[in-house]
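Practice problem: Carrier domain-containing protein
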Amino acid sequence: MNEPRHIPTPDAAIEILRDILSGPLACPRMDAFGPEARLGNDLGLDSVALMTLMLHLEEAGIDMPEDAFDHAPTLTVSALANLLAGVEPAEPEEEPIDIKVHCVVSCFCQALKDKGGIDHRPMYLGLWDGQVVVDEQMRLGYHADDIDHDFYCRWFRRLFGIDVTRWYDEAAGKPANLARLEELLAEWRPGRYVMPMIDMFLLPQRDNKFAQDPFPHYALIEPTGDPDIWQMRDSDFRWEGPIPAADLRKAFLRETVAGGYAFDFDAAHPAAPEDIEAMFLETFRPRETPLIDAIRRIVTAHSADMPRSDLELALRELPVIAIRKYAYEHALASFGDIEGADYDAFEECCDRIAALHGGLNAVHRRAVAYARGGSEADLTQVFEQLDELSTLEIGIKASLAEWFSRWRENGK
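Answer key — structure tokens:
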């Protein structure tokens, strides 16, 4: 870890990537390798493979920028090579104006944005700590068969007056649920939202941030004038476009997914301050860091009683969950004047939120290094980083609590 760092040329970086992917990573799609090949869609690298790639680059003395990991699945080989060589892109990517961190909440908020004139950001309150799953094998997950979204449905109704119907019937079987989906699409009209769970892995035409198999995900589906084409609105990844209906049926029918909701936005109204306050108080835990605590338990288990090598799989879905920390930004925006008097303070908080997200990625990388036979120093570093991140997150919560108190004292 203390070897001098190496900055290759872009051409040399491409060859280094070729060697790692064809060698230790054993990438099964090397026939597609080339400067314009995308790491996720073309080469099939999921978040675990990308983490492993970062480790091999690190062992070669090459630093991969922290933010590159977030965008890696959609990067081309040449784009990543340029980043490794320290070459700035000709046209830097603009920051998204609306951060998406949870597919169910993003779909709900899409309706509010379509309606217009409604601030959707209160719907993200508490999502920074939302639904962390650790199973019996001490594996972290963002999805489980017994997870329901009643909490979000309940608050969607209380905040914005929208009733959500759960139409998917797990006892009915896949064919019956597909028939129900088709009925809902046949009855579709503007202002109606049909939201099935699909497995994104079976939609190769859709780049996604994590490229995982399986990848359960909620999206909004609408009919088009062509019965063989459906319109997919993937609010969480800020994408919409036509998809063959047969592909979406296949992604819906896969046994890895089961779920579906529907709602209308006709009765939608802005959230009342007292309801925003109630949701914040119900979800806010100022001294708790459940995700960090879960990671600590998982790493402890796999460094003691459970196979160390299983730790890599146990943390596979951490990137999907870590991005939820950006929900803090939505909360700050709900309680302050972020484009006016609070601009500088907001930017400072955003820097800390980004550091929290980046720190979770760094913990993930170091834990994978330990799982792959790393030293006790790697394990020690993981726990030290987790302690630092816990302090950082509690500090972010303290700032948010101050903004909330000021908002409430000033008459909301």
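Discussion: Confidence is low (pLDDT under 50) at residues 92-97. Students who identified this feature from the tokens alone can consider the problem solved.
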